[in-house]
Amino acid sequence: MPTQITGTFTFAQWDEKPVAGADGGARIAHAAVTNDYAGGIEATGTSCEYTIAYTSETVGTFVGYEFIDGALDGRTGSFVIEQRGAFRADGSIDCALTVLPDSATGELRGLTGTGAFTARGGQPTSPYSFDYALEG
Predict the structure, then answer these.
(1) In DSSP terms, which residues pair with 16 in a beta bridge?
(2) Are 37 and 3 in contact (CB under 8 A)?
(3) What percent of the chain lies above the pLDDT cut of 70?
(4) 82 Cβ partners below 8 Å, 6+ apart?
(5) DSSP labels, 63-98
(6) Rounded Cα–Cα distance for residues 90 and 93 (Å)
(7) What are the distances in angstroms from CA 35 to CA 17, 26, 49, 69, 123?
């Protein structure tokens, strides 16, 4: 049975660069992001890389991978999460999280899990929820 944890994360840095397309219209961008996690996940300065496909100035979808090195429910190690989500017209961001299979190290080896967050426009800190299991 999975264990559920909650917490918050804060965008520590967001560096977005255009790849193709026109400002205000359909375009692709790349963003390098660092986050700080508190709560069930404790980690600072994570490394996340996003590819974003905008359909208008502020609406689009994204996929990214985040390397987290820290603690999960008090167990130390690292793991990678895949993030898939959307930027909404109201400024919110909805995102689903999935642990990349076989990516966990240390006391987190065998980690599986899924989670989600909804970020509100203009707010650097967002709540997350995460359900996980440790196998092996």
Answers:
(1) 31
(2) no
(3) 99
(4) 63, 64, 65, 97, 98, 99, 100
(5) EEEEEEEEEETTEEEEEEEEEEEEE-TTS-EEEEEE
(6) 9
(7) 18, 27, 11, 11, 13
The three-state secondary structure class of 20 is: strand
Interatomic CA distance for residues 44 and 17, integer angstroms: 23
pTM comes to 0.92
For residue 43, give the DSSP letter: B
- Quickly list DSSP for 113-129: EEEEEEEPTT-SEEEEE
Q: What is the pLDDT of residues 55-78, one digit of tens each?
A: 998 899 999 999 999 999 999 999
Tell me the C-alpha distance between 113 and 97, whole Å. Answer: 8
pLDDT tens for 77-122 read 999 999 999 999 999 999 999 999 999 999 999 999 999 999 998 8
Residues 6+ positions from 68 with CB-CB distance below 8 Å = 37, 41, 43, 46, 78, 79, 80, 81
Specify the pLDDT at position 109. 97
Backbone φ and ψ for 88, nearest 5 degrees, come out as: -100, 160
